[in-house]
Structures are given as C-alpha cells and as structure tokens.
Amino acid sequence: MNKKKAKLNYKHNSFDIIEEGNFVVCAVSGKEIPVDQLTYWNVELQEAYYSPIEVNERFKTLNNKK
Hints:
Blueprint: E1 7-10, E2 15-19, E3 23-25, E4 32-34, E5 40-42, E6 47-49, H1 52-64
Antiparallel strand pairs: 1-2, 3-4, 5-6
C-alpha cells in the first residue's frame, strides 16, 4: 500500500477531503494519523492532533501566548 498525505478542510463535526490520501500529520508530535482514525482537530487553526495529549499541549501553548 502506498502512503500519501491527505489534505483536509476541518469543520466542527466533520472534515472535507481536499486531496485524497491515507494520513495526515499531527501538528504537535509529527506523528502520522490514518484518515480513518482521525478524531481530534482544531477548526480555527486547521490542525490535526494524534490524541488528547497533543490537544492539551497545543491548548497550553496557545494560552501561554495571551
């Protein structure tokens, strides 16, 4: 199976596939996330996250900038 990075447009309860692919990359950890297992993302930042741990890390980073 060839791996290809997907391009997605993240919405509040779903996402649109802009460019077909097998995975996206976590904005915090850099881990590959299979598109069919993608659960966490940020609509405003248009970023995907591997798990709640990365979501929390991004949240802390954003709140420290204020």
